[in-house]
Design goal:
Strand order of the largest sheet: 2-1-3-4-5-11
CATH topology of the largest domain: Rossmann fold
Distance between the termini: 56 Å
CATH architecture of the largest domain: 3-Layer(aba) Sandwich
CATH class of the largest domain: Alpha Beta
Strand content: 15-25%
């Protein structure tokens, strides 16, 4: 039994049940008693440390991050912790890696710590099948689950994301408008966000009556040096390209290193666009044009949404924010 069963049997909204669990005073006594009676009748026992029947909460939020060495994820964790602290909440951080079993294990660990909610940082936590996402949806039956930069349509799961599809679509269009006809797309992940970016690239190529070529969509290792060597290998094998769109800034850095090795002038011979507007994009010479997905805004919006959920308010399952293109020296936009 879960909060949704209580809501249905009591004939009240999920938000009202949540207010009762939170001890919110803005619930009439008859309604409160009706909800409590239904909980007792169906045997629903909420997390006793987290808003259970109006008791004190742990005021602790679990954060799950696949890789804390990733600049985007590391920045996200920083902003999340800062904003949670301002709201009076502490946090537990679990760096899970990308293996599904480890993700499941760490989520259960956080649940055992009686956290008030769990934040999943990055869409790598969303799997391709409903079965593999069951560990997330099951947890959402007990506490709110927040997802940053991914989307899962389920009750008590709240997603904040950027429009990755449109951002990559638009920048690919701009490159094509400048007569760049052989645009190489570099990516490391087939996560929700990764697939949205890849789809944006492919849609732009198709919309401009160009051929979608498999050899111009290159899966790369998550390493600058190895990606540089991969690009050199592809170039030596005859692959030619006049622009690079990278799904991460570190891949754009690898493209810069490749260009220097190959004797290509940037942006005249090779235009390069990164993604995330991380510190890496401004550490090269020339500095890299990149898509800013506003990690700080993503995190602030996530925390604001979470606080509203914990207060018993109705909030949307999905909140989308826009990206911006930061034009620097690796393009001639």
């Amino acid at each position: 039994m879960n909060i949704y069963d209580v809501s249905e049997k009591a004939g009240v909204s999920i938000a009202t049940v949540s207010r009762v669990l939170n001890g919110n005073p803005n619930v009439s006594e008859p309604t409160r008693q009706k909800v409590l009676n239904v909980m007792k009748e169906i045997g629903y026992t909420p997390n006793v440390f987290a808003r259970g029947l109006g008791l004190n909460t742990m005021h602790t939020i679990g954060i799950m991050c696949a890789d804390s060495s990733d600049p985007f994820l590391a920045n996200a964790v920083y902003y999340l912790e800062q904003n949670l602290r301002k709201c009076g909440y502490d946090s537990f951080l679990c760096c899970t890696g990308y293996d599904l079993i480890n993700k499941q294990k760490y989520l259960q660990l956080l649940l055992s710590k009686r956290v008030d909610a769990i934040i999943l940082v990055g869409s790598s936590f969303l799997e391709a099948t409903k079965k593999d996402n069951a560990y997330i949806t099951a947890a959402a039956d007990s506490i709110p689950i927040m997802v940053i930069n991914g989307y899962l349509n389920h009750q008590n799961v709240f997603c904040t994301l950027c429009d990755d599809y449109q951002a990559v679509y638009d920048v690919t269009n701009r490159l094509i408008e400048q007569e760049r006809k052989n645009i190489l797309y570099l990516y490391t992940s087939r996560s929700y966000s990764g697939l949205q970016k890849l789809s944006g690239y492919k849609s732009s190529i198709a919309a401009n009556d160009l051929t979608i070529r498999d050899e111009l969509m290159l899966t790369c290792p998550n390493d600058i040096g190895q990606t540089k060597e991969l690009l050199i290998e592809q170039w030596n094998n005859g692959l030619r390209f006049d622009a690079v769109v990278a799904s991460e800034d570190q891949l754009a850095v690898a493209a810069m290193k490749f260009a220097k090795h190959a004797g290509l002038s940037v942006p005249e011979d090779l235009a390069i666009v990164g993604y995330n507007n991380s510190i890496l994009s401004s550490c090269t010479d020339p500095e890299i044009t990149t898509i800013d997905n506003h990690v700080e805004t993503l995190c602030m919006t996530t925390i604001n949404t979470l606080m509203r959920v914990l207060d018993g308010n109705d909030v949307p399952n999905k909140t989308t924010i826009s990206n911006d293109l930061v034009v620097r020296e690796t393009t001639n936009f």
